[in-house]
Amino acid sequence: MAVHTALPAFSDFVDSLHAAEFEAYRSRPDTAVRDAEAFEEMRRYLIERNAGMDAVHSFEESDGDIVDCVPAERQPGLVRTGGKPLPTPDPPPRPQEYADPPEFVTEPPQSPPPQLRPDRRDRYGNQMLCPEDTVPILRLTLERLVRFPTVEDFLRGGLRVRRDEKGVAQLFGKIWGNAYDRRDNHGGSSGVNVWAPPVFGVQSSASQQWYTSGAGSSPFQSVECGYRLGPPFDNKPRLFVFYTPDGYTSVCYNDWHAGTWVYRTGAPHVLGTALTASRPGAPVQYRMGVFLTGGAWWFSIGDDWVGYYPATLFGSGILATRAAGAGFGGEVGGAGAAFPSMGSGKKPPAGYGHAAYQHDVIIALPTGAESADLTPEPTSVNCYGLEVTNHSGSSWGSYLFFGGPGGLNC
């Protein structure tokens, strides 16, 4: 593969981590790192993350992120264990085909092509595709980490947890606009409509899916996917996967913890990169989901698998063999009394092309994949709304509209 690059070589990037000093970063306008000790912890984290890796090709994404193409068996999910990637499963389940479109749709929503493909080149002429037998790894940098007080703040993404007298975890500073199917399942998927609402500081806004061990389970476990703005990312809608095996005591976004996430070779998307967002009247969506198959929770976009979390990460917990519920919708995080927009910032009555949605929501039951039976969960009616339609009989199957402007006293 021909390379015409002005990018920092992977080896030079790693060398720069060894030479980095706190004084060179502390005066940056976006630096929030707490002190020299916290900076050193960030530096060590990145050195350890990149140990044992090498890049045979690199390219720059449109938003400036660098993607390194790493030999599959030397990616962070495998390099410490010496493991081998699991075989790629058959294509993910698809929704039922219906002849009739929903009445409110006048044009099909845009579904962008795969992010990594032969015809894309970055501004330096590098092909935006990884060679055979390699996988795409987003290059995490000190410039990104120093926007957080500590490496733990970055890794947890602003997640705050309280525990009751029985030790059961409760998230706080969060509001949801979602709906659940409470049946046992092996995952599911939906068409996720992408928006880029404004977020500031510690605020976050997401549209996502949850596959969980069920409310009140001990330990609570979850695998999640979708897009997110705000911590641990920035103000762009970035693709993410996530899991917790132990009620949020341990959490992991994307491939940020060694021995967890594993990309498949030929992955068509890179976790942590920005997705194309909708504009009013021009909705953009990505069909995505997570399915338990072949001993792992596999994440898919369209008809393509991206990678997986091994089911062994959940020990003897419920998600080692199944999920006890599936949720779909929006989530926001705020500071004090201020919460950001969810979805497009419009409530469901704004309608298609203006309000956020997830459609063709399916879950994988033991008897096969079918449209979900969604039950709305309570939300903040002052700031957000949620409307659910099950088994519409149209090409949208089961779907939900959600979102709103946020604000004070949500």
Q: Spans with pLDDT under 50 lasting ≥5 residues? A: none
Secondary structure class reads mainly beta
Report helical residue fraction.
under 10%
What best-fitting shape do the alpha-carbon axes yield? globular
Count of structural domains: 1
Mean pLDDT reading: 92
What is the CA-CA span between the terminal residues? Answer: 53 Å
Give the helix tally.
Answer: 5
Beta-strand fraction estimate:
25-35%
Major β-sheet profile: 9 strands, antiparallel
Written as H for each helix and E for each strand, in order along the chain, the element string is: HHEEHEHHEEEEEEEEEEEEEEEEEEEE
Cα-based radius of gyration, to the nearest Å: 21 Å
Number of beta-strand segments: 23
Describe the structure.
The model has no long low-confidence stretch (mean pLDDT 92). The protein has 5 helices and 23 strands. Helices cover 10% and strands 30% of the residues. The chain has one domain. The protein is mainly beta and 410 residues long.
